[in-house]
């Protein structure tokens, strides 16, 4: 294994825009939920006239779909990701909207609203833009995801459990949607070099909000020592699939 300094410098210099995780190939792994979200999304997109993908990142998951609906819109709030989404999806006729840029999507204008790992689902807005009979399909991050790794840096995280799938389902119902499917998964993550840990903490900035290599050098060096002793750093991601529908017109 290369020296700590080389691995750290490489990870700090690497691009972290978008929602692709290919940089981790061979350096980290994560089990995938059993439902296969990208496949489900591609199937749904092929059978609707108008769809909206919320918090699309760099558009990578939508780009995997071989067929897009005649009207495809995505939203992304972080400018570097929005630029990446325009570059990736623009040639396929996809409209990229940045929240706060003055664009208000029309009421009842989409057959399908989707999101993979939304920041915070706005159920009232989802209900507003869905056509009667339309569907929301999302894969969300669940409670205490990757906390075995996060707490190595920040210590025990007290307080109420955030991102509880039952709470999210109840919020969706209160907004006027009917939840028709809710599935949960816990997925093993393994990191095999300290560069992978640094890179993922730079990408997922909410995990350790004040992260830098200098600030957390003792923790990173302790993890590096474990890895050099042949022990992968293990954490578990939590995910849930939620499908909800807007009722038909009355």
TrEMBL record:
Q: Where is the Methyltransferase type domain?
A: 52-136
Native organism: Cellulomonas hominis
Instruction: Tell me the keywords, alphabetical order.
Output: Methyltransferase, Transferase
Q: Does the keyword Cell inner membrane apply?
A: no
The UniProt entry, under Gene3D superfamilies, shows: Vaccinia Virus protein VP39
Quick check: keyword Transferase in the entry?
A: yes
- What's the protein called, per UniProt? Class I SAM-dependent methyltransferase
**Cross-referenced SUPFAM superfamilies, in alphabetical order?**
S-adenosyl-L-methionine-dependent methyltransferases (SSF53335)
One MF term from GO for this chain?
S-adenosylmethionine-dependent methyltransferase activity
Q: Which GO terms describe its biological process?
A: methylation
């Amino acid at each position: 294994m290369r020296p700590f300094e080389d691995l750290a410098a490489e990870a700090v210099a690497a691009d972290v825009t978008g929602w692709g995780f290919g940089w981790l190939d061979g350096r980290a792994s994560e089990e995938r939920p059993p439902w296969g979200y990208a496949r489900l999304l591609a199937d749904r997109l092929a059978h609707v006239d108008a769809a909206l993908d919320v918090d699309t990142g760099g558009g990578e998951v939508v780009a995997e779909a071989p067929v897009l609906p005649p009207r495809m819109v995505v939203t992304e709030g972080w400018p570097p990701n929005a630029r990446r989404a325009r570059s990736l999806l623009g040639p396929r006729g996809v409209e990229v909207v940045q929240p706060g840029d003055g664009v208000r999507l029309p009421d009842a204008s989409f057959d399908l609203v989707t999101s993979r790992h939304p920041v915070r689902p706005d159920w009232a807005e989802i209900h507003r833009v869905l056509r009667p009979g339309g569907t929301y399909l999302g894969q969300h991050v669940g409670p205490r995801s990757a906390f075995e790794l996060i707490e190595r840096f920040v210590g025990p995280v007290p307080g109420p459990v955030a991102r509880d799938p039952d709470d999210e389902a109840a919020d969706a119902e209160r907004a006027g949607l009917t939840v028709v499917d809710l599935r949960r998964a816990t997925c093993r993550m393994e990191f095999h070099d300290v560069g992978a840990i640094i890179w993922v903490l730079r990408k997922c900035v909410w995990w350790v909000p004040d992260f830098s290599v200098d600030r957390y050098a003792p923790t990173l060096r302790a993890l590096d020592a474990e890895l050099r002793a042949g022990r992968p750093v293990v954490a578990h991601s939590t995910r849930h699939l939620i499908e909800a529908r807007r009722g038909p017109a009355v």
